[in-house]
Design brief:
two-stranded antiparallel sheet, elongated, 165 residues
């Protein structure tokens, strides 16, 4: 019987050492995976940049999609609501905001108080930028700050004939 217990204890020691070795391997693999995930989550500007790169934001800004080019269905009730209400409705999903800090805020506020033009009431599917240009009219232009997600409305300078996106 003592032989049985002796052989059983030697087998148990071998199993324990095997389990400890496996546990150490898994801990090492887990630590390496955590370090790799932490290194991958460091923001781009924190990494060293090449000398020819002007700004850490330049590569990110160039590759960022223009959210105002997203297609949307343009369908407003021309009997109620203003151009400002319609613009707010269009900008809400893309998280842009309308600002009144322009060269002439009186012109911007006058455009925003106008009723929705009949041509924009049921215009169909188009980009958000095109819908905004349709709402503000040919005599005005959009000024877009993509970095801060701000949009302003300005009157076209004298001598300009059409709004350009």
């Amino acid at each position: 019987m003592t032989e049985f217990f002796a052989s059983f204890s030697r087998t148990a020691e071998r199993r324990t050492s095997t389990h400890i070795g496996a546990m150490v391997r898994w801990c090492a693999i887990g630590t390496l995976a955590a370090l790799a995930a932490a290194a991958a989550s460091v923001p781009r500007p924190a990494w060293a940049l090449p000398a020819d790169t002007a700004s850490p934001d330049a590569p990110a800004a160039a590759s960022a999609p223009n959210r105002l080019k997203v297609g949307t269905r343009v369908d407003f009730d021309p009997r109620r609501g203003t151009v400002g209400d319609a613009i707010g409705f269009l900008l809400e999903p893309v998280h842009y905001h309308l600002t009144m800090r322009t060269v002439d805020p009186l012109i911007s506020s006058a455009v925003l108080r106008r009723p929705v033009p009949a041509i924009a009431a049921h215009a169909g599917v188009m980009s958000i930028e095109s819908a905004l240009l349709l709402l503000i009219g040919d005599e005005n232009r959009l000024v877009v700050d993509h970095a801060n997600r701000l949009i302003a409305i300005e009157r076209l300078p004298a001598g300009s004939s059409a709004a350009t996106p």
